[in-house]
């Protein structure tokens, strides 16, 4: 290449195909500007060995390169400056985030909201937002972050206020004073209130417990359901409306006392009722959820193996709550089944007391002789309905009764010692022990 150019007159050699002369001049100059190679000697060159017009071409190329370098530098500087401005602005925005929407003040009005079973914090926030308690879920989650008392928020109903700061909403949900509609049905509790002999002790029935739990004060006005309204709903509403399961409807429909026909269909345990609900709605939730709990124990499948209907299993479980301690449930269940199989009367004082206004452990001869749908001294078989709300533990004992030939049992002391026998003579001996210990003494 160099040898060819030494013998070719300057400017007479055409540039590469497709290139303009200026472009080619630049390439040419660039090629010979390589300091790692010797500068060629030009034929006819003047002083210095390089023709004048070649030196001018080189100088022009250098100026073009300088202009391009300056332009590139300025472009890079603009980009760097713009990026720096962006980063600074982002940093400043990070220090000053947009405010989170949140109410101020003490709220507008009282309202009852429900926390469902399994609700996470985001679910609770969504419920509060839907009811206009808070202005944004972000505000609630921010206020709740790091609170050690959030574990006290349990499924149920809470009285709060609309349009309150998120922090206040968290405070209200974690305060026991705002929980409403919560109550407990103890094992063996009846629908109706009962009074002990002598009137010194009153036991609230389920109707009374529900009525009291329904009370709530909103904006200064307190509202409560009445026992009368609950009893009327139990007696007159359609069984499907009341949530009575299909496996119990036929037997429930035959109950002689309409107010007692749902006895035993509401399980013992912790409950929450909506203070805004109607009597039918409340009873329906209690009964339908109880039926689900009973069914989870296997009551339908077990009834075939035990030889009684699911409803009769509930009735037997309700008897266990009054006739035995939990440790003896499965044995007493076997006694009941054995006596039913033999066509014997059960003769339980608890079934006599069920229809009485005043109750005690020992019953009178007159009370035992009175014919009622429940008195097992005056009839064979089971009571027409359960006599109380059974626990799941009692129901499971009926589903899995202990093996044995016992037909009699009696509790002989106040520590709850219960003895089981096969013969009536043995039983009578144990009854005398119970009488001497004061267990069967009458207070009448």
Question: Biggest sheet, strands in spatial order?
Answer: 1-2-3
| Overall radius of gyration | 46 Å
Please state the average pLDDT score.
Answer: 84
End-to-end separation in angstroms reads: 136 Å
- Please identify the structural class as seen in this structure: mainly alpha
What composes the largest sheet?
3 strands, antiparallel
Give the overall shape, derived from the CA principal axes.
elongated
Contiguous uncertain segments of 5+ residues: 1-48
Write down the secondary-structure element order: HHHEHHEHEEEEHEEHHEHHHHHEHHEEH
| Helicity level | 40-55%
Tell me what you see in this structure.
Helices cover 44% and strands 10% of the residues. It is mainly α. The strands form 5 sheets. Strands 1-2-3 form a 3-stranded antiparallel beta sheet, covered by helices on one side. The longest helix is centred in the first third of the chain and has 44 residues, at 52-95.
Short description:
By secondary structure, the protein is mainly alpha-helical.
Q: What are the key terms here?
A:
3-stranded mixed β-sheet, MLTG-like, Endolytic murein transglycosylase, 12 strands, 44% helix, EC 4.2.2.29, single chain, cell wall biogenesis/degradation, disordered N terminus, mainly alpha, 17 helices, Dna Ligase, domain 1, 3-stranded antiparallel β-sheet, 444 residues, cell membrane
Which helices and strands, and how do they pair?
Elements lengths: L1 H5 L14 H12 L19 H44 L14 E6 L5 H10 L6 H8 L11 E6 L4 H8 L5 E2 L1 E4 L8 E3 L5 E2 L2 H8 L2 E3 L2 E3 L3 H10 L9 H8 L15 E4 L6 H18 L2 H8 L3 H14 L5 H13 L7 H5 L4 E2 L5 H5 L22 H8 L8 E4 L6 E4 L2 H13 L8
Parallel strand pairs: 5-10
Antiparallel strand pairs: 1-2, 2-3, 4-9, 5-6, 7-8, 11-12
Helix pairs in contact: 4-5, 5-6, 7-8, 11-16, 12-13, 12-16, 13-16
């Amino acid at each position: 290449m160099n040898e060819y150019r030494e013998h070719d007159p300057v400017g007479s050699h055409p540039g590469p195909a497709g290139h303009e002369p200026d472009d080619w001049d630049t390439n040419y100059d660039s090629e010979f500007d390589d300091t790692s190679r010797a500068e060629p000697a030009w034929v006819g060159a003047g002083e210095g060995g390089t023709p004048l017009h070649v030196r001018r071409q080189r100088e022009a190329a250098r100026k073009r390169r300088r202009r391009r370098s300056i332009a590139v530098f300025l472009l890079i500087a603009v980009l760097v400056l713009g990026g720096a401005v962006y980063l600074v602005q982002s940093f400043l925005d990070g220090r000053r985030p947009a405010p989170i929407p949140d109410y101020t003040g003490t709220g507008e009005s009282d309202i009852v909201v429900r926390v469902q079973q399994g609700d996470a914090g985001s679910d609770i926030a969504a419920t509060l937002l839907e009811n206009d308690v808070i202005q944004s879920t972000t505000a609630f989650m921010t206020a709740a972050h790091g609170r050690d008392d959030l574990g006290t928020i349990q499924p149920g109903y809470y009285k709060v206020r609309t349009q309150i700061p998120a922090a206040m909403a968290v405070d209200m949900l974690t305060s026991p004073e705002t929980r409403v509609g919560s109550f407990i049905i103890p094992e063996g509790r009846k629908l109706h209130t009962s009074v002990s002999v002598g009137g010194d002790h009153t036991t609230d029935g389920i109707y009374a417990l529900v009525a009291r739990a329904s009370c709530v004060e909103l904006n200064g006005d307190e509202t409560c359901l009445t026992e009368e309204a609950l009893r009327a709903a139990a007696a007159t509403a359609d069984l499907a409306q009341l949530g009575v399961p299909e496996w119990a409807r036929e037997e429930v429909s035959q109950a002689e006392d309409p107010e007692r026909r749902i006895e035993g269909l509401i399980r013992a345990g912790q409950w929450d009722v909506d203070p805004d609900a109607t009597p039918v709605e409340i009873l329906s939730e209690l009964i339908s959820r109880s039926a689900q709990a009973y069914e989870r124990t296997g009551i339908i499948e077990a009834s075939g193996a035990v030889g009684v209907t699911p409803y009769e299993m509930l009735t037997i479980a309700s008897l266990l709550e009054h006739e035995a301690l939990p440790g003896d449930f499965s044995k007493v269940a076997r006694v009941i089944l054995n006596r039913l199989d033999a066509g014997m009367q059960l003769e339980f004082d608890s079934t006599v007391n069920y229809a009485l206004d005043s109750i005690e452990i020992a019953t009178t001869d007159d009370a035992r002789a009175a014919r009622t749908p429940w008195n097992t001294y005056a009839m064979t078989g089971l009571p027409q309905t359960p006599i109380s709300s059974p626990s799941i533990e009692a129901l499971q004992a009926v589903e899995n009764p202990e093996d044995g030939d016992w037909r009699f049992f009696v509790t002989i002391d106040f520590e709850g010692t219960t003895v089981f026998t096969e013969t009536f003579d043995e039983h009578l001996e144990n009854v005398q022990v119970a009488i001497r210990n004061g267990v069967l003494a009458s207070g009448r």
